[in-house]
Model the fold of this input.
Amino acid sequence: MKKVLFSALAMLLVLFLAGCGKIVRSTSSSGGDGGTVTKTLADSYILITPNYVVINTQCTLNAVAENPVGDVSYQWSVSGSGTLSNTASANALYTTPVAACTVSIQVVLTDYRQVVTKAIEVIIHAVPDTTPPAAPTGLIVTSKTFSKIVLDWADSPEADLAGYDVYCKKQGETDFIRVAAGLSDSTYLSSGLDVSTFYTFYVVAYDNNSNYSPSSSVISETTNAPPATPIVYSNGDGNLYLVSEDGSYRQTIYAGGNAKAPVWSANKSKIYFIGTDDYIYVLSVSSPQTAQKTNTAAAQIFDITNSKILYRQGNTTYIADISGDNFINSAVFIPAGVAGYPVGSACFSPNGAKVAFNIQEGAVNLSLETSQARAIDENGYAGRAYIANIDGSSPVLLLDSYDASPPYNNIVKYNAVIKDWVGNKVLFTSYISQTSSRIFSIQEDGTNAVRETSGSKHWARKFSADGSKMLFLDFGNICIYSVASTTTVYAQDYATVLADW
Done:
C-alpha cells in the first residue's frame, strides 16, 4: 500500500513540473554561484556545413533548438543572393550565388511557449582559380637594330588575362632573366642590347589570380653589327660616343668622364683621346670602357697612321712611332724655313710620308701689313699653310690667305686650319671668328681652292675614306656632307665638341 502511494505522488510531481514548463531535455550548466542555468529556446543556434562557403555550391544549415517545449516549427529565409530549400525543417539547404558576396540567413523557431529568431551571416567566397592561361603563341621578331630587338606575339584569348612577362638570355649566359613584367600589350621592345650579340627570348602569360602559363616557344635573334666606320665624338661630359652615319646606331663606348678630343686609329680598331690630365689615352674597340694611359702627354692629337702619331705638346709638335699602347722615337717636327712658329693644326698625307700644316704666328706682328694682320685671329692662328716631309724638310706653300690673288681670294683672307688629306685634296676650315667659319678644300699642289659647304658656321673635321663625304660640325651638330651633290645628308642632334670619322 505504501509503495503504490509513493508512485502516485511521484507521478503528480512530474505532471506539476511539466505544467510549469520546467522539464528539460538537455543538461543544465553550472552557474557562477554553483547552481544550474537552464537553457531555453532562446539559446538555439545555427550550424553551417561546410563552414567555408564558395560560389555556385550548396551548403547545409542546421537549426539546433535548445530545450523546446513541445514540438518546434521552423521557417528559413535569406536576405541577399542565393536560394533556400527545405525551409520548413530543421535542416535547410542553401544554394550559393555565382558571385562572391555576403548574405544573412535566418530561421524562426516556434515551440509551445516561445517564438525565437536566429540569424547567421554567411560570407560567399570566390572559388580559387588554379587554372593558368595557355602558353602565348606566335612569338616573332618584327625588327632589330644595333641595340634593339622588337618582339610580337598573338593576343591571349583568356578572359581573365592580367598581363605578360618577357624573359631573355644573352649569348654565353646560362639562365634566363625577366626583362619585362606586367605588359598589357602583346609586343615588347628590348633596348640597350650589345651589338653583334645573340639573344634568346620567351614570353609567359598570367591571369588575375597569378596563375602563370607555360612559357611560349623561344625566339632568338642577333643584333646588327656596328658600322665599319662609325663617328666617334665627345660632347663635353668626358665620355665618348659612337654614332652611325644615319643615326640608327648609337653607343656609349667610354664613360670614364675624363675624355676629350677623340681620334680614330687608321684601322678603326682603337680610339686615342686626350685625358683631363693632358695625357694621351688609348681605348680598344674590342674592350670598351677601359682606357689605357700612354707614356705621352699632349695638348692635341692631330692625326694617326698605322705606325705614327702626330701631336702637339705645348707649342711643340712631335711625330712618334706607335709601339703597342705607347709611343717611341718621338721627334720634333720643325719645318724648314718656318721655324719659330708653332704648328696650329696638321695632318698626314694619305701615304704618311708628308705633313700638311698651318702655322700659328702668335701675337699680331705690327710690322705686317693690315691685310696680313687681319689674318691672325684671336687665338693666334695664321692664314698660311704648307706641305713638308715628315722630317720637316722641303716645305712648300700650300695656300696663303694673305694673298688676294686666285685661288686665295675665295678664302676671305683669313686663317686656314688644316684638318684632313684624302687623295690629292686637303681639307681645311677658313676661321673668321668665333661665330663665323667656312669649309674649303684645295689640291695638294695649291690649285683649285673650292668652298665645300655653303654654311657660314661650319667646322671641317674629316673626309670619308673615299673622299665622297665629309664630316663637319655646325655649331654643336654632327653633319655629313655629300661632296658630289653638295648637300648635307645627315645631321645628328647632339651638342658635340669634337668628332672623328
